[in-house]
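Write out the 3D structure for:
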Amino acid sequence: MDYKNKKFFIYNGCDRGLCLRGCGRQDRQLNTYDWLADVPGNAQSTDLVEVQFKNTRKGYYHNVNNLDLRKGDIVAVEANPGHDIGVVTLTGKLVELQIKKANLKSADDIKRIYRIAKPVDMEKYREAKSREHATMIQSRQIAKNLNLQMKIGDVEYQGDGNKAIFYYIAD
């Protein structure tokens, strides 16, 4: 798959997206510097992977299919309901440390990665993303018509378009 022409992430000269190395560019906000990236066997030490979605929303997932995942890969992950599309931002031992930092209590909170995103997944993702702005404008209008004292800042559709997250500010 030719990732150079995808608008989902910035191409950095690596063969599969953002650079794998810990010294690579940090194109996304709040990335963890992967200082273990060059240690042999680091990626095989755990099946846990950190995946980032629109803006700075991140989640932690099990790589149950033992996919060869690298930083920058676009993956389809389990969501409730359906699936979502995100970018791998961290693999290996550091993911376990990030999970402790995020204070996830239960292993049930960690869903799984289905696969590296296929072209059909990316098409559905683009369709869902194309609806975000219009949905945000419409939801702002509805809030205004109902005299709700709230400011809707953003809307994020899940990768398959089955669910939307509304980001808002209100008292």
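The longest strand covers residues 83-91.
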